[in-house]
Amino acid sequence: MLPLVLDGLLVVLLLAVLALGVRLRVGLRRLHREVGGLEQSIGALDAANGRSEAALAGLARAAERAAEQLISTQRLLDDLRFLTERGEQIADRLESGIRQARPAIAGGAAPRPSVEPQCAGTGNGIGAPLAEELQRTLLTLR
Fold it and tell me: Domain for residue 1, yes or no?
């Protein structure tokens, strides 16, 4: 009778091992499917990472171009400010010369030009063509 009980116990243990084996196989299949999904997720993440790196490189190039344009714009702005200041100074000198010439013309005296023709463009801040135009304007006002 003891051999029969031992054989029964062995059958029960073998059935338990068989059930565990089936359960293990089902778990391994599920894990294999999840690993495949994980590999797809990793591939998608890698592709997104590559796109983001390319976008960052494009942004860096755009930032460099914007910085260069900003520097160029600043230079042009400085030049424009300089030219505007010079233009205002010349306009003030022209206005002053005209104001000085008006009383002299009204009084009958010959106007005295504020810019001598031989000195034009030699340090007084008025270029030669502008000084000549001023001279012509003053002579017309006589």
Answer: no
